[in-house]
Every structure is written in structure tokens, then in C-alpha cells.
Design goal:
The protein is mainly β. The chain has one domain: TolB, C-terminal domain (Neuraminidase, 6 Propeller), CATH 2.120.10.30. The chain is built from 1 helix and 26 strands. The protein has a 4-stranded antiparallel beta sheet, with no helix packed on it. A 4-stranded antiparallel beta sheet has the order 2-3-4-5, with no helix packed on it.
């Protein structure tokens, strides 16, 4: 661990001497981890490989979906349906347990979305997702021209009737997460190397926001950028960045960094008590056991 600015607070979250454990390697670029508590397994994406895989302690890693439309971020709804951000189709989709697939969002005002990237579900069942252009670039998606003139963040209303554009002034919106009480929505901007925070109203909309934490590296993909981002039960933010995962307190103070030997794309909570942090880092999948649990989103309760 390096870059520790408040040792006591950091070690309240990350045990002294803890290191990440590699669970598997040889992938192209891993992303979108999500834990299935009922089945005790992790799903994760390999976008360039166009495949979805799962890991469990008994059987290790195996493929579960190929092709996967170069899926990226994933999460569950309360009822157990899986939400997937698909780069190739520029869609946010729902995959039901019976195998059926429903497109929740693919266009805004008649124009195709860029490429939904990451997704989170609020307690009121509304869905928030980021829409940068990464899925229209070679390797990570299907190369094609952009239909929209901006990169935004959207909300799918609980009844699914309307797609709301919440904010459209990001260079590339990416990871997003709620504070434990869902009064604040954090969204990072990868090229600008910063996290913004927005106050969330009772109707699900957000304000204009402000910068919460900046200078998370220089914005260069090779060194690591703000990409995947999650919150723990106490409101601390865990975000990818140069060297691994940066841990930031609710007061925007840098607590420390969890070192990872590869550039990290995303992370998520899982395991017993939701105290294991699963880490998708370039060609490998890692985990580290912490002393704190993840922020209990609706599907985690």
C-alpha cells in the first residue's frame, strides 16, 4: 500500500499487510464485476474478447456467454434480473432468469446512444447509467461514428416509460455510485481525472454538481484513470486510478491506495458479508478481503 495520507483511517478499512490475490489471468481486458449472492459466484466481462465469464471458489473461472455484445458494466435488480451495458448495440439491456432479453435504453430523442458503460440501481428501482463513446472505438467496441453530440448520464424511470438525460457536460462519464443514503450520486470523468458529486432529489433527478476529488493521475489510460467506482457502508469511495484503487473519505480526503499490479478497470463488492473487493484489472481478476462491507444497494440486501 502506498499514498497513505491517513494511516489509521485507511487501516480501519484495509487490514495491515493485506495484498490482492489473483484468481485468474490470460484475458484481454476485464470489466463489470457483479456478485450473485444466491449462487455465490462473480460475473465479469471481457469486452475485447466479446465474452462473459464467472468465477466461484469451487470451480474457478469458466465462460457463460459468447458473444456478449462486448458487454461492460453489470448490476442486478432487486428481483434478480441482470442489467448489462452493451457496447456493440449501444444499449442497456435486462437479462431475465428465463433467458429473455429486454432493451431498456438504446436511443435518446431518436438518436442512438453512444455506448452505455456502467450502471447502478436506486432503491426506488430507477436505473442510472453513464454513456461515453468508448464502445465506438476499436477493440473495446464496434468502431462507428457518434450519433449524439454529447456524452451524458441518464436515468430510466422505475416504470421504464421515459429515459431522462440528467447531465451532458462530461468529456467521458464512466463509473458511478451512490452514497449510502442515496442523497448523493458520484460520477467520474476519465480524461479529466476527477470525480463529481451531485445532490439527488426525491424525484430522482440531480443538481448541477461540483468537483468532489480531482487529479487522479493525468488522464492517461496507460497509467490508470478513474473508471470503475464503488462506495462502502461508511461512505468511503473506492475508485480506479494510477497504481490500483484509490480510497477517498466522504470528506474528500485521500486515505490511501490498494496496490494492484495491473491497470484496474472496475471493482465490486461480494463474498460473505459483502466484504470482499473483486478487482478487474486488465488481463486478470483479483480479490482482496477488507474489514468493511460495500454500500448495501437494493440487490445486496
Amino acid at each position: 500500500m502506498v499514498a497513505i495520507t491517513n494511516t489509521e483511517r485507511f487501516y480501519d478499512l484495509v487490514p495491515k499487510g493485506a495484498h490482492v490475490e489473483r484468481l485468474g489471468t490470460g484475458f484481454t481486458f476485464t470489466e463489470g464485476p457483479v456478485w450473485n449472492s444466491g449462487g455465490k459466484y462473480l460475473l465479469f466481462s471481457d469486452m475485447p474478447g466479446d465474452v462473459r465469464r464467472r468465477w466461484d471458489a469451487k470451480d474457478g473461472i469458466r465462460e457463460v456467454k459468447r458473444p456478449s455484445n462486448k458487454g461492460n458494466g453489470m448490476t442486478y435488480e432487486v428481483g434478480g434480473d441482470l442489467l448489462v451495458c452493451e457496447h456493440v448495440t449501444s444499449s442497456l439491456v435486462r437479462e431475465r432468469a428465463d433467458g429473455t432479453r429486454q432493451v431498456l435504453a438504446s436511443h435518446f430523442e431518436g438518436k442512438e446512444l453512444n455506448s452505455p458503460n456502467d450502471v447502478v440501481v436506486a432503491s426506488d428501482k430507477s436505473i442510472y447509467f453513464s454513456d461515453p463513446t468508448y464502445g465506438r472505438m476499436p477493440v473495446f467496441g464496434l468502431e462507428r461514428k457518434q450519433d449524439l453530440s454529447f456524452q451524458g448520464v441518464y436515468r430510466v424511470q422505475p416504470n421504464g416509460e421515459r429515459l431522462q438525460l440528467l447531465v451532458d457536460d462530461f468529456e467521458q462519464p464512466n463509473g458511478l455510485c451512490f452514497s449510502p443514503d442515496e442523497s448523493r450520486l458520484f460520477i467520474n470523468d476519465s480524461p479529466r481525472a476527477l470525480i463529481r458529486v451531485f445532490k439527488r432529489s426525491a424525484d430522482g433527478t440531480i443538481d448541477k454538481g461540483s468537483v468532489f476529488f480531482d487529479r487522479i493521475g493525468s488522464g492517461g489510460l496507460e497509467e490508470g484513470v478513474p473508471d470503475g467506482m464503488k462506495c462502502d457502508e461508511h461512505g468511503n469511495i473506492y475508485v480506479t486510478g494510477p497504481g490500483g484503487i484509490w480510497v477517498i473519505g466522504p470528506d474528500a480526503s485521500l486515505l490511501g491506495r490498494i496496490d494492484v499490479p495491473e491497470v484496474v478497470g472496475n471493482l465490486n463488492w461480494g463474498g460473505d458479508g459483502w466484504k470482499t473487493l473483486f478487482i478487474c484489472a486488465s488481463t486478470s481478476l483479483y480479490k482482496i478481503d477488507l474489514t468493511v462491507s460495500g454500500n448495501k444497494l437494493a440487490y445486496m440486501r
